[in-house]
């Protein structure tokens, strides 16, 4: 993912708007935002069908969000690298 946009307006009917563009692997299979993880029933996010996780999710009850953006610096050793779809 290269772009994340966050809008916070407590007075709005949609107090937090979180948008992400996952554009580096257009053919990678995914499911649209939903509650895909039974062990985390409050978590909302798109689901990566290759790794089973997400690249962008929000937990409204905890008032937290997480996203994966482009990394910088040296790569981890191949046996320790995690997929961008590994969140949560």
Automatic annotation (TrEMBL):
This is NRDE family protein. It comes from the Bacteria. It comes from Actinomadura harenae.
């Amino acid at each position: 993912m290269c772009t994340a946009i966050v809008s916070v307006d407590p007075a709005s009917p949609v107090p937090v708007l979180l948008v992400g563009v996952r554009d580096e692997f257009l053919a990678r299979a995914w499911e649209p935002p939903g509650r895909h993880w039974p062990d985390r029933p409050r978590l909302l996010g798109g689901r990566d069908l290759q790794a089973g996780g997400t690249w962008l999710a929000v937990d409204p009850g905890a008032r937290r969000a997480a996203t994966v953006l482009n990394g910088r610096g040296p790569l981890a050793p191949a046996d320790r690298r995690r997929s961008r779809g590994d969140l949560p």
